[in-house]
Specification:
single chain, 353 residues, alpha+beta, Heme iron utilization protein-like fold, nine-stranded antiparallel sheet
């Protein structure tokens, strides 16, 4: 939508009043604006603009106690209840390494922040919401009944900024982060050689960058001893087997500014329409199964033996969600997880070519 015809704050608030049950993200899209612009319309009326300083936020959240952390992309919403502890700050990347809340954060992507209060009957629901330069949500923190309200209010006071206008400037949406690079020249032999010499899963991104390949290009090229395409029902089957056999898994959902990780067995998986929902005590996942266009099993060598992941991608080639068997550094991969991954229904090799 042209910036000249974007709705102003009163028009946005009126649209909310006219559509009280619509999700804010969906209503913002209907109005032709970003979610950050939608939230900004309430500055001075329940919302406060705050600094998007991820490191200061993470340090301050340690005192707030139990909260719900939410990270999402277009196709998956990942929610974890717990505390922000074992925080590691950094200019290029920051981490939260707690037992429940486990995050990898890229602070330079964070561009806009808000502290939001909404009345729900006799209760006030409080959250901190952060967005990238395009106005897309990167991370949200929702207070719980047991949260330390005094510590939260102190944190909000420290983060509050002078500019409290009801309008934020957002940039045009960038080209997809995993768009094919120009002039990709790596051969299958080069890729297989570099892949075979991996000693840690974290080296994978650097390998792709050095070879000028996207993830999907690499998966498609490397050969079926390292990566193979799964049948459309394989992700649902993985959930069913993991619940039935109580296999602890790691579930990664991320966007450009944050990756959120769950580790542990799954208990309560509930399909509902296009959504597959996990509704466990401290972990909720909402996954749009109809957005998954490709799912792969990927084997990466490490110093502890090869590690197997299941990765799902959308129509644009963006990763929606990624799964591993739960393990600690220095441990071999779980045999039960590997067995499930290697026995999920595959696309026949001739069809995958």
């Amino acid at each position: 939508m042209n910036a000249a015809v974007r709705p102003d704050a009163p028009a946005i608030r009126q649209a909310r009043a006219d559509n009280p049950k619509m999700r804010e993200r969906d209503l913002a899209r209907q109005l032709g604006i970003s979610e950050a612009e939608f939230v900004a319309a309430w500055c001075g009326e329940g919302a406060l603009r705050v600094s998007p300083d991820a490191n200061e936020l993470l340090t301050g959240l340690e005192a707030v106690g139990e909260v719900m952390a939410l990270t999402r992309n277009e196709s998956a919403v990942h929610e974890k209840i717990g505390t922000y502890d074992k925080v590691v700050t950094g200019a290029h990347s920051a981490m939260v390494l707690g037992e429940q809340i486990d995050l990898r954060i890229f602070p330079k992507v964070w561009a806009h922040g808000f502290a939001v209060e909404k009345r729900d009957g006799d209760e006030i629901r409080r959250s901190l919401q952060f967005f990238d330069a395009q106005g897309e949500a990167v991370h949200k923190v929702h207070l719980r009944p047991g949260s330390n309200l005094y510590a939260y209010q102190n944190l909000v006071s420290r983060l509050a900024i002078a500019d409290q206008s009801q309008k934020v400037a957002v940039k045009a949406m960038e080209v997809a982060i995993d768009a094919a690079p120009a002039g990709a020249v790596a051969s299958m032999e080069e890729l297989r050689d570099r892949w075979s010499r991996l000693t840690d899963t974290h080296q994978f991104f650097g390998m792709l960058k050095a070879l000028n390949l996207t993830r999907l290009q690499a998966l498609d090229m490397v050969g079926q001893d390292y990566a193979w395409l799964l049948d459309a029902d394989a992700v649902s089957a993985m959930f069913s087997h993991s619940v039935q056999e109580q296999i602890p898994i790691m579930c990664f959902v991320g966007n450009r500014g944050c990756i959120q990780i769950h580790k542990g067995p799954l208990q309560n998986v509930q399909p509902m329409g296009p959504w597959l929902n996990v509704m466990d005590k401290t972990f909720h996942l909402h996954l749009r199964m109809d957005h998954i266009r490709q799912a792969w099993v990927v084997r990466k060598p490490t110093k502890d033996g090869h590690v197997t992941s299941i990765e799902a991608y959308d129509a644009a080639g963006e990763m929606v969600i990624q799964f591993f068997g739960a393990r600690h550094e220095g441990e071999a991969e779980r045999g039960d997880w590997r067995f499930i991954a290697e026995n999920l229904p595959r696309v026949p090799q001739s069809s995958a070519a």
